[in-house]
Amino acid sequence: MKKLTPELVEQLLPNQNISLAVKSNLMVMETLSEAIGKIEKTVETQVRPYSEYQSLTDVSGI
To answer: pTM for the whole thing?
Structure first.
């Protein structure tokens, strides 16, 4: 779903109501992804100085 563009949605879904709903969901997903990215960067800069953080990044899968 992340690869869908508004233009592609219009091509794939000729029904205007469904197309609008999907495009709205795409905008929400994009906005949330941006917000999550900002939060992750902020949290990482705050926890990086702590040795516990380094331990977490050394373990595979965490």
So the answer is: 0.70
* pLDDT score at 1: 63
The half-sphere exposure of 36 on its side-chain side, counting CA atoms within 13 A, is: 6
State pLDDT tens for residues 29-57: 999 999 999 999 999 999 988 888 888 88
Q: Amino acid identity of 61?
A: G
Angstrom distances, CA of residue 22 to CA of 13, 51, 59: 9, 44, 39
Q: What is the CA angle 36-22-30, rounded to 5?
A: 20
Tell me the C-alpha distance between 16 and 1, whole Å: 18
